[in-house]
Specification:
The model has no long low-confidence stretch (mean pLDDT 91). The protein folds into 2 domains: 5-179 and 360-380, Glycogen Phosphorylase B (Rossmann fold), CATH 3.40.50.2000; 191-359, 3-Layer(aba) Sandwich (Rossmann fold). It has 389 residues and is an alpha/beta fold. The protein is built from 14 helices and 13 strands. A 7-stranded parallel sheet has the order 3-2-1-4-5-6-7, sandwiched between helices. Strands 10-9-8-11-12-13 form a 6-stranded parallel sheet, sandwiched between helices. β1, α1 (16-30) and β2 form a beta-alpha-beta unit. The longest helix is centred in the C-terminal third of the chain and has 20 residues, at 361-380.
Amino acid sequence: MKNMKIGIVCYPTFGGSGVLATELGIALSDKGYEVHFITYEQPVRLNQAFHPNIYFHEVKVPTYPLFDFPPYETALASAMVNVIVNQELDILHLHYAIPHASAAYFARQILRKSGRDIPFITTLHGTDITLVGKDPTYEPVVTFSINESDAITAVSDNLREETLRSFKIEKEIHVIPNFVDIKRFHQTDKDHFKQMLAPDGERILVHVSNFRAVKRVKDVIRIFEKIHKEIPSKLLMIGDGPDRQSAEDLARALGIYADIRFLGKQEQISEILSISDLFILPSETESFGLSALEAMACSVPLISSNAGGLPEINIEGKTGFMGNVGDIDVMAEKAIYILGDDARLKEFKKAAIAQARHFEKQHIIPMYEKLYCKVIAAYKKGTCAFTEQ
């Protein structure tokens, strides 16, 4: 369907679900599809370039003294209805179950009253299932709205199995992994930048996250302390969130703050990854690890926990190593092993980029296109005319 009009609903933040949704929209627009983002502010990665086939529709949430918490879900459903009707969308793609899937169901009921209809797909990203969705406050609505979706996707096999264990899902869950744009995420010559940060040739380690408890950022600091004792090194902490201050406090207490840069939120991640030697991701849970994949695309090996979907991208002993959640000793020991020999580090870097190429966007985007076409065809009781471009 060459002229497909796709609505994408996501969180517009630096988190993995918002990043994946935005990158998907950009990739689809590059292939000629018309893409409409519906969310409360422009997604972060849309700020980096103009895309003529992409439209942004801001969800306005009025504030009234009556409401302690403005009803975003209601405003979102209304925005969906308006965009679907006025832009004549063919399909909605919802990223993160809460509250997007339930809002889409609400919008569908409104549309049906006027004789219109539209299918929607829900993509599960991780904490919407493994953390928030399991809360008894949300579970019945999450289960219902996921089952009302015309198709369900998950970003890893692990997340698919976790969803099936935790919820009474009545439909097939398609696994479509996260992807990376190798043209954007690749190692570039930034030696001048590296010289500024590591003037004496120190190894550069990096962590990227939203600094929430699930990311275990204090473990990153403790792992770095152990590495720092053995190997001259610097640590770049990219992102922001609730645990940033406690991580900074810990770094000061351990006496290593001078060799750590807390850079906050950054849009040009690839430039920072290009000068990095090792990525550290000791998360409590990680449905896939998109930030790790982007690092690997820039030839950065990975030290991670073995949680969630990380074993699906981090090949033990080849692209990096894994440890049990909280086992900072093992993670530090393996990091020192990788960083302690130039030839060994070079081999891990080569393996990292080779693994990342399995997740290049040209391999993954057609999986979404085929699913869109199949869902629309079933909804209209027609045939799917999709052919790979």
